[in-house]
Amino acid sequence: MYRHVVCTRSPSEPKDRGVHQRNAALEHIERHKVDGIVFFADDDNVYTVELFESLRTIRRFGTWPVAMLAPRKNKAILEGPVCNGSQVIGWHTNEKSKRLRRFHVDMSGFAFNSSILWDPKRWGRPYSNPIRQLDTVKEGFQETTFIEQVVEDESQMEGILPGCSRIMNWHLHLDTGNLIYPKGWLLEKNLEITLAIK
Question: For this structure, is 79 an active site residue?
Answer without folding.
Answer: no
